[in-house]
Amino acid sequence: MNRLADNAERVPVLIAGGSLVGLSASLFLGRLGIGHLLVEKHPRTSHHPRGRGNNIRTMELFRTAGVESAIREAASVLADNHGILQTPSLTGTEGNWLFREMDPGARPPGSALPDGACAARTTWSRCC
Ligand SMILES: Cc1cc2nc3c(=O)[nH]c(=O)nc-3n(C[C@H](O)[C@H](O)[C@H](O)COP(=O)(O)OP(=O)(O)OC[C@H]3O[C@@H](n4cnc5c(N)ncnc54)[C@H](O)[C@@H]3O)c2cc1C
């Protein structure tokens, strides 16, 4: 028989993993007032980057949750980080740079839109 320990905590939602999906779920559940517990097996953020940017729709959702400016501030340390290096090894210099010059997400919020661009109130953001 399954029996919870006397000091066990019951929560409506258990979120396993505190990365992009888990933290976003926690943020949006919290805004709805839904109690939850997030568990993450690592004590800190990953050493390996797993995101170069958040697209416009993602940033719109983060803006509604009030965290857009915090994300941009955290991402500002990567302002000079351009392009993707496609490489067979993390230790060498061999590889091909992709998108090194072209960076459509570099438009600062509030600046003029390029011709034909849709008028979203926010922009692509680098990941932090
Ligand atoms: C090189 C690279 C570049 C990318 N670039 C982009 C990009 O520019 N933009 C974009 O949107 N996406 C990008 N992605 C994809 C993006 O990183 C993933 O879609 C995203 O990380 C998935 O998030 P997730 O929370 O589902 O999973 P993960 O990020 O894999 O996180 C899972 C979390 O769960 C934790 N966990 C696992 N098992 C347990 C357990 N048993 N108990 C507790 N915690 C546990 C892990 O420690 C981890 O923190 C990129 C991915 C890679 C690899």
From TrEMBL:
<dbReference type="InterPro" id="IPR050641">
    <property type="entry name" value="RIFMO-like"/>
</dbReference>
<dbReference type="InterPro" id="IPR036188">
    <property type="entry name" value="FAD/NAD-bd_sf"/>
</dbReference>
<keyword id="KW-0812">Transmembrane</keyword>
<keyword id="KW-1133">Transmembrane helix</keyword>
<dbReference type="GO" id="GO:0071949">
    <property type="term" value="F:FAD binding"/>
</dbReference>
<keyword id="KW-0472">Membrane</keyword>
<protein>
    <recommendedName>
        <fullName>FAD-binding domain-containing protein</fullName>
    </recommendedName>
</protein>
<feature type="transmembrane region" description="Helical">
    <location>
        <begin position="12"/>
        <end position="34"/>
    </location>
</feature>
<feature type="domain" description="FAD-binding">
    <location>
        <begin position="11"/>
        <end position="81"/>
    </location>
</feature>
<dbReference type="Pfam" id="PF01494">
    <property type="entry name" value="FAD_binding_3"/>
</dbReference>
<dbReference type="InterPro" id="IPR002938">
    <property type="entry name" value="FAD-bd"/>
</dbReference>
<keyword id="KW-0285">Flavoprotein</keyword>
<keyword id="KW-0274">FAD</keyword>
<dbReference type="GO" id="GO:0016709">
    <property type="term" value="F:oxidoreductase activity, acting on paired donors, with incorporation or reduction of molecular oxygen, NAD(P)H as one donor, and incorporation of one atom of oxygen"/>
</dbReference>
